[in-house]
Each structure stands twice: as structure tokens, then as C-alpha cells.
Design brief:
about 290 residues, Immunoglobulin-like, Interferon/interleukin_rcp_dom, disordered C terminus, signal, FN3_dom, receptor, Fibronectin type-III domain-containing protein, five-stranded antiparallel beta sheet, disordered N terminus
Length: about 290
């Protein structure tokens, strides 16, 4: 009986060692942990490790750069209540990372049937103000007589809740300006060839989000698109969709109710006088090469 017990113990240890070496630790740790950020909505993403069971849950913690345990070198990790034992593979940490003067760390682990994996963290510190992307600005177009008045607003910082005051990213990046592009079919016809359609654009740099554009041609489609512009920071700025108006056949006297075209969230109004235009193949972005 003693010999039988010893054999069972040896077999058990051998099987456990073989399982660990063949399949790695259980449960598998998450992989590819990283932040994505648009207008300072900071979302942590990750992927399940290889052979992760379907009933796996995930738990997230974060730490603030410079805050340690008892003044030592160990980071002070804090739990995220809404991202504890979740099944999804992302966690919105906008509230936890809202102070733009701080840098942040985050980590994730898998939990399966009360067993936890090792933590998987970011490869480097996350600095929201330097790493976020700017979404497209909101555009308002009003046409009267032969002038189109274009007003640009935002983009707006992501609001944590309905009680949070809406803040333009221009208040955070005080040196932000706008690039406004204008395309019209009259210019296109001047350079059209039999083999291809050529897009020509006028470009304007706006210190403020207000611009008046003269509509000089009858029966012409004028299209407007804009993006934020940052000269001193390598931040990607997204361009808005193209929106178009068509001038009258004779005397230009369009009186349109001011119309706002919000792009974030994804919502595209469709008044009869406004039609989306396929953007040119050349894009202008403010990210440094």
C-alpha cells in the first residue's frame, strides 16, 4: 500500500510538471496590453493568451507614475471596480487617467475558476496628453447670398458623464489651429481629363474656428473639410468628412438654416442641400514624420 501511494504521488507530480511545461501556466496571461485614446477617452485593450478558456474573466489595475508603496520603489497598484472580473477585453480608464499632468501604468490578469494568471502590464508609461489623437472638429455651415460662413468647434474632450462640463480640446492645446480645405466642381472641370478625375483644393490655416468663403460660381458644388492642427506636438489629427453645398443656377441666394455636422459620435445628418463627397486620395495630417 505504501509503495502504491508513492507511485501515485510520483505520477501526480510528474503529470503536473508535464502539464506546466507543455501548456504553460494556467490560466494563460493576457497579451498585447495597450492604450488607445481619442479626445482623451483612454481605453485599455488586451488580447486573451493562447488557449484561454471561454469562461475566463479579466481584472484590471492601474498605477500613477511617482506614487509608490510606503515611499519605496514598488508602484501603488489600485483596483478598478468596473473592470474587476469582466468578460470583455477592454476597460475605459478615462476617469482614472484624467489628470493630464500625470503618467500612468496599467496591468491585466486572467481569472478562471478562482485561479489567477500572472499580471501583464504596459510596455511603457502612458501619457494621455502626448499620446491621445484629436478627432475631427464639428462643422457648422451657413450660406447667405454669395458667402458661406464656416464655423469650426472642438474637437471636444470626452465627457465622463452628463454632469461633466464640455471642454474644447483647444482649451487644453492652446496653440491648436485648424486646416480648412475647400473643393469645388468648377476647379475640377478646369483640369478634368478624359482618363481621370482630378481634385484641386484650396487650403486655409485658421487661428480661430470662423471663416467666410466667397461662392463665385453658379451651379457649382462647394465642399468643406477640416482638421485640427498642432505644430509643436506629434499628435495625429483626424479630418472631418466632406460636406457639400450646391449654388443656384442663376443669382446666388441660398438661405440655409445653420446646420451642424457632428462627427463624434458617428452621426451624419442629410439635409437635401448637403451631400457627402468621396475625399481626395491625398490626406493632410499633423503627425510628424
Amino acid at each position: 500500500e505504501l509503495q502504491h501511494s508513492s507511485l501515485c504521488l510520483i505520477f501526480s507530480r510528474s503529470f503536473k510538471a508535464k502539464s506546466t511545461s507543455a501548456f504553460g501556466s494556467f490560466p494563460p496571461s493576457p497579451i498585447n496590453v495597450s492604450f488607445s485614446s481619442v479626445n482623451l477617452r483612454n481605453v485599455l485593450h488586451w488580447l486573451p493568451g493562447q488557449d484561454t478558456p471561454n469562461d475566463t474573466h479579466f481584472t484590471v489595475q492601474y498605477a500613477i507614475y511617482g506614487e509608490s508603496v510606503d515611499g519605496g520603489n514598488q508602484l501603488k497598484w489600485m483596483a478598478v471596480r468596473q473592470c474587476t472580473a469582466i468578460v470583455r477585453t477592454w476597460c475605459d480608464l478615462s476617469a482614472q487617467t484624467s489628470d493630464l499632468d500625470d503618467g500612468y501604468y496599467a496591468r491585466v490578469r486572467s481569472v478562471v475558476r478562482k485561479k489567477s494568471s500572472k499580471w501583464t502590464g504596459l510596455q511603457r508609461r502612458f501619457d494621455p496628453k502626448e499620446e491621445t489623437r484629436l478627432g475631427p472638429p464639428l462643422i457648422t455651415v451657413e450660406v447667405h447670398n454669395n458667402t458661406a460662413t464656416i464655423t469650426l468647434k472642438g474637437p471636444m474632450r470626452y465627457q465622463l458623464n452628463n454632469q461633466t462640463t464640455a471642454i474644447s480640446m483647444a482649451e487644453i492645446y492652446t496653440h491648436m489651429t485648424y486646416n480648412l480645405s475647400v473643393h469645388n466642381t468648377h476647379l475640377e472641370q478646369m483640369v478634368r481629363t478624359d482618363s481621370e478625375r482630378v481634385f484641386l483644393q484650396h487650403h486655409y490655416v485658421l487661428q480661430k474656428g470662423f471663416f467666410k468663403y466667397r461662392l463665385l460660381s453658379y451651379n457649382t458644388k462647394y465642399c468643406f473639410s477640416a482638421q485640427s492642427r498642432l505644430l509643436f506636438m506629434p499628435i495625429e489629427c483626424q479630418r472631418s468628412a466632406w460636406y457639400c453645398i450646391t449654388t443656384a443656377q442663376g443669382i446666388i441666394d441660398l438661405k440655409l438654416k445653420p446646420t451642424s455636422f457632428p462627427v463624434i459620435p458617428l452621426f451624419t445628418p442629410s439635409p437635401a442641400s448637403l451631400q457627402p463627397l468621396t475625399p481626395p486620395t491625398k490626406h493632410y495630417r499633423c503627425k510628424k514624420k
